[in-house]
Each structure stands twice: as C-alpha cells, then as structure tokens.
C-alpha cells in the first residue's frame, strides 16, 4: 500500500459527495498514524460544514482518545483540537485531494491543524488556485508537505465543477436513470438510494432544467423531499409558453420556487433531467452526465443514441450502479 493507494482512498471518498458541496470543492482526506495505520477517511460534505481535513482529524483523535468531546461546530472544533490534541497525531501522515486552505472563511484554515498537531507528512493531489491557496508553501516551509501532484489527474477530474464555478462559469450536469437494458422509460427506475443522491443534488443547485413534454406527460413534482431539502428553481424548455401549462401539475404547487422558460444568466450550477429526446438535444452542451443503472431488464424501449462516454467515476447506490461521465466529442 503506497502513497497512491492512500490518496486514491481520499479521492474516492470525496467523489461520494461530488456536487453536494456547491459552491465549495469536493475534497477527501485520509489520516494515518506514525506507524502508517489508517485512522480515518473523511470528506467535506456540504458548504458551511467542516472541511475534509478537520473531519478526518476529529475522527482520528476520537479513535485514539474516545473521551475527547470535540464540538461539532467547525470553528469551535478547530480551536478545541489545537488546545487538546495531546500530541496524539504527532508524526502522523495525511493525504488530501486538494491543498489545505490557508485562510479563515466560514471555517478555519486547515493548514494550522497539520502544523499545530505536528504532522510528519502531508501529501497533496492538486493545488488550490483561489484565495484559499498557499497551504502547500506553508507546509513545505515547515518540511511537512510532500508530492503536490500525487494522483493529480484524478483530483483535477474531481475538481472540474469547482474550477468552473471559480471562473464564474456555469456547470451543466445531465441526470439520467436507465434500466439494465438501457431504457429510460418507466417509474422509479433507480433505487431509493440513487433517488436520495439525486434529491441531494437538487437541493443545492441553482436551477433544474426539464422539457415541456416531461412536464405534460409525467406531471412531476421535481422537489428534494427525500432529503427534506429546498426544491430547486425550475426552467421548462418548451415550444409553448409557461402560461399554457396546467398549473395543477405538482411542480407548480411549491411555494418559493421560481419558474423560467429560459436559463438565467447568473446560473452557475444546473442539472438537466429528461429522457432520450432531451439528451439528444442538449448532450453537446453538458459538462458531465450522471447516469444511474438498475439491475433489471424491462420490456420498455431502450435508448437508440450512439454516444461515446468517458467514465471519470463509478460507484454503487442501493443495488444500482452509477457513473459520472464526460462525452467524448
């Protein structure tokens, strides 16, 4: 088990929360003790919550001293750890998919934890080119930081949405659920766990985009009820006006939701949901595709599109396989 192995564990953990940390990056962290035993594998889970490094250090310290009562709030946890770590992680090793932050934002600078707890090595996969960057140089000057390009290609794949948001550009994700034989037709094609993940994404995006035919035929609600989240604003792309739709359709009955017949210019994160025709129309505009596949053959017609995808991540959710793909153009 070499350095690449541990870094891949950190990156894989971060992928589980891809898109859910918007507008923050998805980041993973693995902590080893001085004997190279794994103490924790954690990730940043949501904007405003603890960064991956703090989550991993908290778990590692609790494993070494179960009596430590570390606060949940990130700023308080950071302060508590710096005062009460008792050198438990001295000479420890960390693997972080993105350069630890060096500034105080909603959460404290993670680089202080590695210096304050006297880590021996901190391996970094990708550098941060935002105002939070600089952690690598701080650690390097203290003789701690190592290999700033370890598993860099995988880490940069993970960071693609974040890079676009940082440039002020929109990231467009297409979500599609399929049967094992490639049909997008039918109800509840994906597992509950897959639908929960999709609802988590809906709860953080700026805009959900669907076609007029889906609205008329399926009469969906398109909310984030499975995670008690905020229903996303809705854009309906149709040849017909918004006024022509039946306002008794569930999606129109959600308080606080805004409706559009076009994509607003200030939208930075949007998800498209639809079937074959919608995919065919917008495939070349997408940055990534989230595709769920269940384990059932159905009698429904399979997609007839000829598309070549590159998988940048694959996982499993409740019996479904799913992947995040890019279109090979």
Automatic annotation (TrEMBL):
GO terms for biological process: riboflavin biosynthetic process. SUPFAM superfamilies: Cytidine deaminase-like (SSF53927), Dihydrofolate reductase-like (SSF53597). Pfam families: dCMP_cyt_deam_1 (PF00383). GO terms for molecular function: 5-amino-6-(5-phosphoribosylamino)uracil reductase activity; diaminohydroxyphosphoribosylaminopyrimidine deaminase activity. Keywords: Hydrolase, Oxidoreductase. Residues 1-137 form the CMP/dCMP-type deaminase domain. Gene3D superfamilies: Cytidine Deaminase, domain 2 (3.40.140.10), Dihydrofolate Reductase, subunit A (3.40.430.10). Its EC number is 1.1.1.193, 3.5.4.26. Pathway: Cofactor biosynthesis; riboflavin biosynthesis. It comes from the Bacteria. InterPro entries: CMP_dCMP_dom, Cytidine_deaminase-like, DHFR-like_dom_sf, Eubact_RibD. This is Diaminohydroxyphosphoribosylaminopyrimidine deaminase / 5-amino-6-(5-phosphoribosylamino)uracil reductase. It comes from Campylobacter avium LMG 24591. The gene is ribD.
């Amino acid at each position: 088990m070499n350095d690449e192995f541990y870094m891949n564990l950190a990156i894989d953990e971060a992928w589980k929360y891809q898109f859910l940390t918007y507008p923050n990056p998805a980041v993973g962290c693995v902590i080893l003790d001085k004997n190279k035993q794994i103490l924790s594998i954690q990730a940043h889970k949501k904007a405003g919550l603890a960064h991956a490094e703090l989550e991993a250090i908290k778990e590692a310290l609790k494993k070494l001293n179960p009596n430590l009562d570390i606060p949940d709030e990130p700023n308080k946890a950071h302060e508590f750890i710096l005062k009460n770590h008792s050198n438990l992680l001295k000479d420890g090793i960390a693997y972080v998919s993105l350069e630890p932050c060096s500034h105080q934002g909603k959460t404290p600078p993670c680089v202080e934890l590695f210096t304050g707890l006297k880590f021996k090595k901190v391996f970094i996969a990708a550098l941060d080119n935002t105002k939070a960057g600089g952690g690598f140089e701080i650690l390097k000057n203290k003789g701690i930081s190592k290999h700033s390009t370890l598993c860099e290609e995988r880490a940069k794949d993970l960071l693609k949405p974040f890079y676009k948001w940082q440039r002020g550009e929109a990231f467009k994700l297409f979500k599609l659920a399929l049967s094992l034989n490639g049909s997008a037709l039918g109800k509840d094609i994906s597992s509950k766990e897959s639908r929960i993940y999709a609802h988590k994404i809906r709860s953080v995006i700026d805009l959900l985009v669907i076609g007029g035919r889906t609205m008329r035929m399926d009469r969906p609600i398109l909310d984030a009820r499975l995670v008690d989240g905020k229903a996303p604003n809705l854009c309906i792309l149709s040849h017909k006006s918004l006024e022509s739709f039946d306002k008794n359709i569930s999606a129109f009955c959600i308080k606080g939701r805004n409706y559009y017949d076009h994509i607003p210019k200030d939208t930075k994160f949007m998800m498209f949901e639809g079937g074959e025709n919608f995919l065919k129309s917008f495939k070349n505009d997408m940055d990534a595709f989230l595709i769920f596949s269940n384990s059932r053959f159905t009698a429904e017609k399979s997609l007839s599109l000829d598309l070549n995808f590159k998988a940048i991540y694959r996982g499993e959710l409740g019996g479904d396989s799913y992947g995040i793909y890019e279109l090979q153009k």
